[in-house]
TrEMBL record:
<dbReference type="InterPro" id="IPR024344">
    <property type="entry name" value="MDMPI_metal-binding"/>
</dbReference>
<feature type="domain" description="Mycothiol-dependent maleylpyruvate isomerase metal-binding">
    <location>
        <begin position="10"/>
        <end position="130"/>
    </location>
</feature>
<protein>
    <submittedName>
        <fullName>Maleylpyruvate isomerase family mycothiol-dependent enzyme</fullName>
    </submittedName>
</protein>
<dbReference type="Pfam" id="PF11716">
    <property type="entry name" value="MDMPI_N"/>
</dbReference>
<keyword id="KW-0413">Isomerase</keyword>
<feature type="domain" description="MDMPI C-terminal">
    <location>
        <begin position="144"/>
        <end position="235"/>
    </location>
</feature>
<dbReference type="InterPro" id="IPR010872">
    <property type="entry name" value="MDMPI_C-term_domain"/>
</dbReference>
<dbReference type="Pfam" id="PF07398">
    <property type="entry name" value="MDMPI_C"/>
</dbReference>
<dbReference type="GO" id="GO:0016853">
    <property type="term" value="F:isomerase activity"/>
</dbReference>
<dbReference type="InterPro" id="IPR017517">
    <property type="entry name" value="Maleyloyr_isom"/>
</dbReference>
<dbReference type="InterPro" id="IPR034660">
    <property type="entry name" value="DinB/YfiT-like"/>
</dbReference>
């Protein structure tokens, strides 16, 4: 996917996140994050935006910590989030495409394109959180974007040693989008999961459904649409896949 596509999505999702958070109010609970209120969601996402923008703006090649959350609330906090979101967009759009900076997912090419993709998905998931906190039906995720997000999650985040999705013996989980040409085979073991974009071999469990529902369910925002085979593997995902 082109960076411009991710940037357009990032712009829409960030605006929608801020609008939903403003409507929900800072005290509204965030259903998928039981310890969070909307103020925590805004503080977290704004700090992540600033952190991401800094790597690109400074061409920083090594990891560095995020800032502390700001002591802001209410309308002032929403305005601060909008400013963080706008600064991130401006940084990514103005950066030279060959800027090299730190990227933390295996196999990722460093640079503004990595952060445009990562922040688009970060913001989309948290936009869903803000709309869930507001109440009413959240805006659906676009199918192509959802497929890309499932791919990033399975072949990026859970390829890292930090993934806690492990099994004592080798197991195979399949993930299939029913409304797109997209299927993944996830091989589990005592090592980090190894995911390929194919349907090779037999799988002991398959989770399937529309890409947008899979995207949110694999990020533990929705129940898994459909499970066939050994449901314990799907349950294992729910229990151990939280990103830390």
């Amino acid at each position: 996917m082109e960076s411009a596509w991710y940037l357009g999505t990032l712009e829409r999702e960030g605006r929608s996140l801020a609008d939903a958070a403003e409507q929900a109010g800072p005290d509204a609970p965030v259903p998928a994050c039981p310890d969070w209120r909307v103020r925590d969601l805004l503080r977290h996402t704004g700090v992540v935006h600033r952190w991401a923008a800094g790597f690109v703006a400074d061409a920083c090649p090594t990891p560095r910590p995020m800032e502390e959350h700001p002591d802001l609330d209410g309308a002032e906090l929403v305005a601060w989030y909008r400013a963080c979101h706008r600064a991130l967009l401006d940084t990514l759009r103005e950066a030279e495409p060959d800027v090299e900076c730190w990227a933390f997912l295996p196999g990722a090419v460093s640079g503004p394109g990595f952060w445009a993709r990562r922040q688009a998905h970060e913001t989309a998931v948290h936009r869903y959180d803000a709309e869930a906190a507001r109440g009413g039906e959240p805006t659906p995720v676009d199918t192509d974007f959802a497929v890309d997000g499932v791919d990033e999650l399975l072949r990026g985040f859970h390829a890292r040693r930090r993934s806690r999705v492990r099994t004592p013996e080798p197991r195979v989980l399949r993930v299939r989008a029913t409304d797109a040409d997209a299927v993944w085979t996830v091989r589990l073991s005592q090592e980090p999961p190894v995911t390929t974009r194919d349907a090779a071999g037999d799988a002991e469990c398959e989770v399937s459904g529309p890409a947008a529902e899979l995207y949110l369910s694999l990020w533990n925002r929705l129940p898994v649409p459909e499970v066939t085979g050994d449901a314990a593997l799907a349950a294992l995902w729910r229990e151990t896949s939280a990103i830390v």
